[in-house]
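S.,

As promised, the zinc ion run. Input:
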Amino acid sequence: MLNFELYNPTNLVFGKGQIEKLPTLVPQGAKILLAYGGGSIFKNGIHEQVINNLKGFEIVEFSGIEPNPHFETLMKAVSIIKEQKIDFILAVGGGSVIDGVKFISAAVNFEGNPIDILQKRLLIKENAVPFGTVLTLPATGSEMNSGAVVTIEATQEKLAFGGSALFPKFSICDPTVIESLPKRQLQNGVVDAYTHVMEQYLTYPHEGYLQDRIAEGILQTLIEIGPKVVENPKDYALASNFMWSCTMALNGLIQKGVPSDWATHMIGHELTALYGIDHARTLSIIAPSLYKVMFETKKAKLAQYGKRIFNLEGTEDEIANEAINKTVEFFHKMGMQTKLSEYTEDYNKTADFIVNRFEERGWKGLGEKQNITLEKVREIVEMSY
Ligand code: NZQ
Ligand code: ZN
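Predicted complex:
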């Protein structure tokens, strides 16, 4: 097993009605920026619950953080925080709002142009404005990790960043919030979390036996509950296991001491930047092709996955191949389309565009062995058309 440090200071407050703890979690006397998205929290009553639980606190509201949050929007919140001397941020929303707040938190005290946080991928280790979250959409794990993804509208770049100062101080995770989610977002959540596990699991055999078993447990749980929770989000057993699986998929635990890939995400982010395709749906387009193109590298682990998750039998090659088919089947069951041409007609230049972008950024080898070269990226994207 590889050496590791496990640092995760987020106080995860999980369960029905936990929003009542809000006044005890926010620092006493804090002036709060309440940040949210396009208004779903008004329709489902979460805004009202937050406001009712924060009586006595001074609150400034910031609305309109869009899905795949924009740098340009977030910088407006940075100005408000500076002007109004705000000392705590509360993110109420899904991954986009939480990621947006991580950027705001990092940018307020940043010396220099905050765009560098994204374009130079600077690690934020100090001077962040403290923030907490009320999660409304299980998917990204952003509620318990220190990473985020922000889009620069002007350049159509979707860039990841993070750092140890960007863990939420607390996250309130009440599974009943999923009752108001549209089917599409529930499907997205399951597939995003599933792919997070795959990025950290589907590499090559290693000595992290326990990490593998935990990862497989999350995959099996998502396969079992995913299709059901989409049809029945009011079932608390399904909702709570769904939410906890999403958090566990990307709170850092299963990544410790093992190699990880993340190339599906890196390529997928470009599809969102180019075509506005939902994050999870980009993953379901790219992942199957990536597993095929990187078959030799991933074969042994694909076979382990096929045996343990789908009970497949046969030679290593047969099981590994069939495991990819089973994954695509699961994505289809979760309402995903797995080809780029199903989302846009204008896909022919996508591979050129992505390869050029990666080249400009100096990304010459992605994946757990850094052997996903630019030629392989081209092959993966073209196979996804
Ligand atoms: O904006 P509002 O009106 O709130 O509506 C949102 C939004 O339109 C709606 N929604 C959220 N909670 C709801 C709800 N509608 C009804 N009821 C509720 N309870 O759902 C829509 C999508 O929300 P969004 O936050 O964009 O979705 P998600 O949580 O999937 O986040 C996606 C973003 O997270 C990034 C993605 O790249 C993307 O930008 N990721 C962040 C990661 C991280 N920080 O670790 C890792 C992920 O791999 C991912 O890249
Ligand atoms: Zn993701």
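Residues 209-231 form the longest helix (23 residues). The chain has a mean pLDDT of 97.

- D.
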